[in-house]
Amino acid sequence: QVQPVESGGGLVQPGGSLRLSCAASAGSIFSFPVVGWHRQAPGKQRELVALISNMGSTEYVDSVKGRFTISRDNAKTTVYLQMNNLKPDDTAVYYCRGGFNGPWGQGTQVTVSS
User: Which strands sit side by side in the sheet containing 18-23, from one edge to the other?
Assistant: First the structure.
């Protein structure tokens, strides 16, 4: 299986926005019924943040509802995570993954700090 490639992370002030991208070759993460964005903060377990299905339905963890939006571009085989009104607690390495047993990418660091 091909690893997804995450990008778009960086340093942003509280209240700011970032858009993460997860690029993968056709037949990799899009072969799964869902694609998810996960994150892992220092000293904490990796958690699922948002999911999007092949049909476009979405789910979010409560802590990001109303602030994050997951979307997908099938033509570009890319999944996005638009993150608005970022908070220091959102600081983490963000990963995307096909399904619940697909390969992990290298992640992209998001740091929210003033």
Answer: 5-7, 18-23, 78-83, 68-73
